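Subject: sequence -> structure tokens, single chain

Hey, anyone have a minute? Need the predicted structure for the following. Not urgent.
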Amino acid sequence: MALSRDHWLDAQYNALRSLPEPGLLFAAWAQRSDEVRRSHLCHLDLRYGPSPGQHLDVFPAREADAPVAVFIHGGFWRGSDKSPHAFLVPALVATGAAVVLLNYDLCPQVRIEDIVAQVRRGVAWVAQNIRHFGGDPQRISLVGHSAGAHLAAMLLSEGEDGAPAAPVRHALCISGLFDLEIIRQVPFLKGDLRLGEDAARRLSPIRRQPAPGVQVHAVVGGEESAEFLRQTTLLRAHWGTDRTPVCEPVPGCRHFDILETLALPHSALHALAARVIHGT
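Reply:
Had a minute. Here:
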């Protein structure tokens, strides 16, 4: 019997179903991240705004005037946290960057548009303060995964004055969500996201113009669902090859282990991240 549309949407977007034991993966990430915080100089839970989720971790650069990589976690705007993603830090620091892990409040306590505003505020805080940690505020790039990739793309879309919504020109968007008009229909997300039709259009990067001069490199796991693959190709279709010079699958990767690939210093994805971070 054919799946109903609701069941199909849940199957396409619930990436946890691709993991036989999700708890084991996230526990391993948490353990590795604890080890990173013990072994690397870091400044944890710095406040960039008044609400509980508005804080970030900074891992200073090895040398002064370094580029800055701001990592934005996923979780469908309703879950996850920066802390278990610190396992990515060593690989990103190895590119010569200062690294920032950014948190934000989660749905349903806030709306997605509130999260976009918070991330914009967090990146502005980084631009104002990163010199204290060896970073160059003129060389900030974003690395976002899943919903974090959506947030990165929103910040590189055109604001009311035609400029980027944040002081940043480059982003690596991994397994991103750029069409929220279909996301608002996904049954397991509806209750938390409370996303209306108008908001879904307004908050879809594919419904916005990229800011002049920005570039987004978009990748997705080659083994991800058809919808995650489609979401990535949609961004290039709407933003064009000048603004999305890279739009490709990463062979053999699924929604979560693509981050494991990013953490490998000799992987092609890590090399792409280094190019984005250095703006080359």
